[in-house]
Write a structure and sequence with these properties.
alpha+beta, two-stranded antiparallel ribbon
Length: about 110
């Protein structure tokens, strides 16, 4: 998922939303490429492929919500790793998870 996208369930999709990532079927074949603008017919067709969530490009106003969500996730990570020592495998894992959530993972 790109930095400026979010996952939405099918029942929250609307015509005009833009697909952020390629939509693949169970075999890995591309059903829809990233950048496609969804239509009502496309959304109905997607339901027949057992897809439950889609990565949708986030609009400018939604990026604030993404920042709030990131802060919530980082607080949750701190809680989950509250017993991690200053050094060690748990601290390293925590750093990887934080970098992933912040979009810094390579």
């Amino acid at each position: 998922m790109s930095k400026h996208s979010r996952y939405l369930p099918l029942n929250k999709l609307e015509a005009g939303m833009v697909l952020a990532d390629d939509l693949l079927d169970k075999m890995g074949h591309v059903l829809l490429p990233a950048g496609v603008s969804l239509t009502d017919a496309t959304i109905k067709a997607i339901a027949h492929h057992d897809v439950h969530l889609l990565s949708i490009v986030a609009e400018a106003g939604e990026q604030k919500v993404d920042a709030e969500e990131l802060q919530r996730q980082l607080k949750r990570i701190d809680y989950l790793f509250r017993h991690a020592t200053e050094e060690g495998a748990m601290q390293t894992l925590k750093q990887f998870v934080v970098h992933y959530r912040e979009g810094l993972a390579s």
